[in-house]
Design a protein that fits this description.
Keywords: Endonuclease, Hydrolase, Nuclease, RNA-binding, tRNA processing. One of its GO terms (molecular function) is ribonuclease P activity. This is Ribonuclease P protein component. It is an enzyme of class 3 (hydrolase). It is a single chain. The chain has 3 helices and 4 strands. The chain has helices at residues 2-11, 45-62, 81-95, and strands at residues 13-16, 20-25, 32-37, 66-72. The protein has a 4-stranded mixed β-sheet with strand order 1-2-4-3, with helices on both faces.
């Protein structure tokens, strides 16, 4: 998995948002792979895992295949579902251009 993430960062596309950076590459196969990087400064493990689950849900709902790596940039305690959805909708528009 580590090799795949490094390749994705080097050769994939990057979209920078307000709350997170998204690296992505369209996959040849019909699989969906999602990786995360969340700093300990963003909250304790419960908070970090909760936000990862929420973001993973948005990605699975809207995309069926591809490789994605997400770097979280903000304090996650302040992030609401509406913030994530708004950010994801903006990023989704840029992915499909």
């Amino acid at each position: 998995m580590r090799k795949r993430i490094i390749d994705l960062i080097k050769r994939g596309n990057k979209i920078t948002g307000q709350y997170f950076d998204l690296y992505y590459k369209k996959a040849d196969e019909k699989t969906l792979k999602i990786g995360f990087q969340v700093s300990r400064r963003c909250g304790n493990s419960v908070v970090r895992n909760k936000v990862k689950r929420r973001i993973r849900l948005f990605i699975r709902k809207h995309l069926k295949s591809g490789d994605f790596f997400i770097k979280i940039k903000v304090n996650l305690k302040k992030l609401t579902d509406e913030d994530i959805e708004r950010e994801w909708n903006e990023i989704k528009k840029r992915i499909f251009l």
